[in-house]
Amino acid sequence: MAKGRVTVVDIANAVGVSKSTVSLVLQASPLVNEATRTKVMAAIRDLGYVYNRSAANLRQSTSKIIGMVVNDLTNSFFAELAVGVDMVVQSAEYVQFLANTGESIDRQREVVASMREHGISGLIISPARGTEAADFKSFVGSGIPVVLVVRNVPGAKVSSLVSDNHAGSFAGVEHLAGLGHTRIAFLGGFPDTAVFSERFHGYRDALSRLGIPFDESLVVGSAPSRAGGVEAIERAMLLAEKPTAAVCFNDAVAFGVCDGLRSRRMEPGLDFAVVGFDDVIEAKTAVPALTTISVDPQGMGRRAAQLLLKQINSGKVEAESIVSSVRLVVRQSCGAQFGKAERRMAQ
Amino acid sequence: MAKGRVTVVDIANAVGVSKSTVSLVLQASPLVNEATRTKVMAAIRDLGYVYNRSAANLRQSTSKIIGMVVNDLTNSFFAELAVGVDMVVQSAEYVQFLANTGESIDRQREVVASMREHGISGLIISPARGTEAADFKSFVGSGIPVVLVVRNVPGAKVSSLVSDNHAGSFAGVEHLAGLGHTRIAFLGGFPDTAVFSERFHGYRDALSRLGIPFDESLVVGSAPSRAGGVEAIERAMLLAEKPTAAVCFNDAVAFGVCDGLRSRRMEPGLDFAVVGFDDVIEAKTAVPALTTISVDPQGMGRRAAQLLLKQINSGKVEAESIVSSVRLVVRQSCGAQFGKAERRMAQ
DNA sequence: CTGTTAGCGCATTCAC
DNA sequence: GTGAATGCGCTAACAG
C-alpha cells in the first residue's frame, strides 16, 4: 500500500478506464455513466487514493482556500470572529486558512506572504498595528479581494468592516439614561485619535438627543489602558458633582475604572458602560457589573466572509476603499449596578 | 502587470539567465554568483513575482505545512494551545493550518480530509467527541505523524499528549492542605470513568501521603456538569462534619459548586480547587475564588509541536500508541478564600 | 459517454 | 556557476 502514492492513473488502470474519466468522477460530473462511476468510487476506496490538491491547484490556478489572519487569537473576540468566518466559508465549500500574528507586523508579513504563495482566493484580515496600505499591494495587483475587519488601514484600496463607533457610544448613553442617570461621564482615550472622536461624538449626540446637558468636566481623557482607567475614574470622582454612570472608551479603560472603584471601597451606585471593540468578551467575563456595547464577533465574521465571497464570485474586487460599519449591540452582562456585582455573578 | 501570472521563466528571461538559476536563488543556494543573485532578486521584486507553492509541493511531494485541528476555538484554552503550537511550528519554518470543528465529528472529518488532500506533513488534533481510531488510518498508512492532544482516542496508533490527572489532583490536595485544610472534599464526576479514577486516586494518594485520613463521605459523585456541581456541594454541606475545602472534578463542576455556595449565602471559609483540563481559563476568569490546577495550554501546544516535528524530521512515526502526560500547575487565581473573592477580583 | 494529448510552475538531474 | 531536459498529479480541450 505504501509503494509510492496512488494516483488517478493507478485507479484508472485498476478499473480499466482512462484518467480523465476518473477525474470527472472526482468532480461529480454528470457526464459519466453511473456504472463506471460506482466502480471508480470503489477502486478509490480500496486503493486508498487521496486527492492531490497541489496538483489540482496548479492546473486550475485557483485554490478554494480563503485566508484569515487575526492579530490576537488569544483574545476570545478574534477566536469568535474566526468561527463566524468559518461558518460561511465552509458552507461555500471553501476552506479557511487561519493564522495568528500576535500583533507582530513582521509575523503578519510572513503569514500573508505564505498565504499569497499558497494561492488563496481571498483574504480577511484584522491587521496588526503598523500595517500599511502597501502590505496588500500584491493582492490588489492580482485582483484578489481583501477585506479588513475590526481595524481599518488608511489608504488601502480594499473593503473593510469596522464597528460603528458613533452608534455604539450613542447606544451606551441611551442605555444608561434609560436606567435613570443624567450625570454620565465619558472616561478614557486620547482625544486626538479618530476613534476617540467618533465615540465621543456618539456620546455627545446622545446627550443632546436626550436633552441631557453636556458637561465638559465629565469628559476625562486618559491613556486607553487599564492604568488610564484608574486615573480617569479617580479624577472624575474628585468632581464636586460626581458622575453616577460612565461610558468608557474601551474595555481596558473599563478594567481600570473597575480597579479604581474597588480601591475606593466600591463606591456604590455607579453604573457604567463600556464601548468595547476588541477585548470586550474578556471584560464581560471578568467584570461583572458591566454593560458591554459591542459588535457580535461571530456576526461580524459572517458578514466579512459574505462580503469577501461576493467579490470572489463576482470577480469584482472593490477598487476603492469602502468601509461598512456594523451596528453595536448593548448587552447587560450581569446587572448594571456595580454594588450588586457580587450577587449577580452567580448569573 | 496582470497579464497572466509571472513565473520563474519570466524573471529568468528578464535577467537573461536560466530558470534553474532563478530556482536556486529562491532556495538561497550557495552555488550561485552573488552578482546574478542580486539581479534576480531585483527582477523578482520589479515584476511582482510570487512563488507558487502548489507547483513546488507537487514537484517535491512535501509541503512544510502542519495541520492543527481543535474542537472548540471559542474556548480560550484551545486558542492558547494553537498559539503554542504556532510558536514552534513557525520557528521550524513550517506553516500552521488551523481549523475548528466546533465539536462536530462530521466537520472534523471534512477538515481532516481537506488537510490530507493538501498534503500536510503532520497533524496535531484535539479530537471531537466520538472520534475513532479509524479516522487516522489514512495518515498512519502513509507514515504521516499524528499527535493527539488534550483527549486521547483509544486504539489509535498515534502518539498523544494529555494532562497528568493523577498528579493534578495530587497537587490540588497538597495546595489546599498547605492552606491548613484537613477536611477536603472531592466533588463531582462519574466514578465509572477512567478520568475520574485517575483524578480520584491522585486525591486519595495525596491524602495518605500527607497523613490526612480518607473519609469516604467527602467523596461526592455527580454529573460532571454545572448542575452536578450544585448538587454535589449541597450534598456535601449536609454532612455533620462539613468540608472546609474541595477539589472539583472539573471546571463545570466548579461553576456549579460556586453557584451552590452562593445560594447558601456564600458560606465562608471554604476554599476549593479545580482540576480543569478544557475550559479552565474561562473558569479562572469568571470564578475568582478559585485555585485552578491545569496544564499551561501554550506549553502543551509547544510540546505537541515539538513531538510532531521530531517525528517528521526523523521519519519515524510512533508505531504504537504512546501517551505522554504533561504536568499540571497550580495557579491561585485571585485568592483562596471564597469570602474574599470580591476584594481579590481587583487583582 | 470515454480516451488522447498537452501543459500548469517548479525542482531536479545532468551536462557544459 | 549555469543551461537544457524531464516529470510531479492533475485537468482542460478535443477527438472518438
Describe the protein:
- The structure is a homodimer of 347-residue chains.
- Chain A has 347 residues and is an alpha/beta fold.
- Chain A has 3 domains: 8-51, Orthogonal Bundle (434 Repressor (Amino-terminal Domain)), CATH 1.10.260; 62-164 and 297-325, Rossmann fold; 165-296, 3-Layer(aba) Sandwich (Rossmann fold), CATH 3.40.50.2300.
- Helices cover 45% and strands 15% of the residues of chain A.
- Chain A is built from 14 helices and 12 strands.
- The first copy, chain A, has helices spanning 8-15, 19-26, 34-47, 53-60, 76-91, 105-117, 137-142, 165-178, 194-210, 226-236, 251-263, 280-286, 297-314, 341-344, and strands spanning 65-70, 95-100, 122-125, 146-149, 159-163, 184-187, 219-220, 245-248, 271-275, 291-294, 322-326, 329-332.
- In chain A, the strands form 2 sheets. Chain A has a 6-stranded parallel beta sheet with strand order 2-1-3-4-5-11, with helices on both faces. A 6-stranded mixed beta sheet of chain A has the order 7-6-8-9-10-12, with helices on both faces.
- In chain A, strand 8 (245-248), helix 11 and strand 9 (271-275) form a beta-alpha-beta unit.
- In chain A, helix 1 (8-15) packs across helix 2, helix 5 (76-91) runs parallel beside helix 13 and helix 10 (226-236) crosses helix 11 (251-263).
- The longest helix of chain A is centred in the C-terminal third of the chain and has 18 residues, at 297-314.
- Chain A is elongated and about 90 Å long.
- The model of chain A is unreliable at 278-288 and 333-347 (pLDDT under 50).
- Chains A and B meet through helix 4, helix 5, strand 2, helix 6 and helix 7 of A and helix 4, helix 5, strand 2, helix 6 and helix 7 of B.
- The structure holds a DNA duplex (16 and 16 nucleotides).
